[in-house]
Amino acid sequence: MPATTPRTIVTGVIGSDTHIVGNRILSMALEKAGYKVVALGALTPAPEFVKAAVETNADAILVSSLYGQGELDCRGFRELCIEAGLDAILLYVGGNLIVGKHPWDVVERIFLDMGFDRAAAPGMRVETVLEWLAQDFAARERAPRRQAG
Ligand code: B12
């Protein structure tokens, strides 16, 4: 659970994807858990996530992608963050990330290699996402943040 100043998390569904239900459930669960949520909704271009994160001094960005174009839409996302000075922002992606059936470890590796800190397999429960966030924020509190530039 976040301390006195709630951590800010940007959520949204990337690219031309209109699948909003899971992202909305996630956003509501984050709010209920005490986070400040900046919900960008569906059809959100990658640069809009980064812009919102800069404007709100966010601690994490949670990207949803359901329609199968996640690999294409998310390519370069970490680099956009770095260019905006958000080197150390926590980045998660989840949904139905790519088209077709592939072993999850292969899919996960693609997104981790793009610079995401966590990739969620299809149907990931919100309770697990909350656990990940608690663990990752606690780890960042123990380790000094990397500086931009
Ligand atoms: C409802 C639905 C639609 C609705 C969406 C309505 C809306 N506005 O939301 C409509 C009919 C519009 C639709 C359209 C399409 N759809 Co559709 N749709 C679905 C369906 C049946 C359910 C999605 C849903 O709401 N799930 C319920 C929510 C609660 O679950 P969720 O989104 O997965 O989210 C959970 C987790 O994944 C996780 N999570 C979500 N985001 C994130 C992010 C992070 C960071 C983390 C950690 C976790 C996380 O948390 C949530 C809570 O547990 C799925 C099949 C399925 N059963 O999943 C197909 C599905 C997603 N659709 C699919 C497809 C292909 C399409 C279309 C391309 C079809 C077409 N040819 O037109 C279009 C795309 C339109 C577009 N531009 O987006 C495919 C995607 C295939 C793929 N990825 O390989 C699926 C999987 C169906 C299938 N089996 O083929 N769809």
Structure characterization notes:
By secondary structure, the protein is α/β, with parallel strands linked by helices. The protein has a single domain, classed as Cobalamin-binding domain (Rossmann fold). The protein is built from six helices and five strands, in the order βαβαβααβαβα. Strands 2-1-3-4-5 form a five-stranded parallel β-sheet, sandwiched between helices. The longest helix has 17 residues, at 126-142. It is globular, with a radius of gyration of 14 Å. Cobalamin binds next to helix 1, strand 3, strand 4 and helix 6.
Question: SSE layout and pairings?
Answer:
Elements: E1 8-13, H1 21-32, E2 36-39, H2 46-55, E3 60-65, H3 70-74, H4 77-83, E4 90-95, H5 104-113, E5 118-120, H6 126-142
Helix pairs in contact: 1-6
Residues 16-23, 25-26, 62-64, 66-68, 92-96, 99, 120, 122-126, 129 line the site of cobalamin.
Task: Offer a quick outline of the entry.
It contains six helices and five strands. By secondary structure, it is α/β, with parallel strands linked by helices. Strands 2-1-3-4-5 form a five-stranded parallel β-sheet, sandwiched between helices.
Order of adjacent strands in the largest pleated sheet: 2-1-3-4-5
Shape: globular
Q: Which secondary-structure class do the elements indicate? A: alpha/beta
Provide the CATH top-level class: Alpha Beta
| CATH-level-2 architecture | 3-Layer(aba) Sandwich
Helix content: 40-55%
Give me the strand/helix succession: EHEHEHHEHEH
What is the tally of beta strands?
5
Strand percentage lies at 15-25%
Sheet with most strands: 5 strands, parallel
CA-based gyration radius? 14 Å
Instruction: Give the N-terminus to C-terminus distance in angstroms.
Output: 31 Å
Which blocks of ≥5 consecutive residues have pLDDT under 50?
none
- Structural domain count: 1
CATH topology: Rossmann fold
Number of continuous helical runs? 6
CATH superfamily, by name, is Cobalamin-binding domain
Mean of all residue-level pLDDT scores:
94
Bound molecules: cobalamin
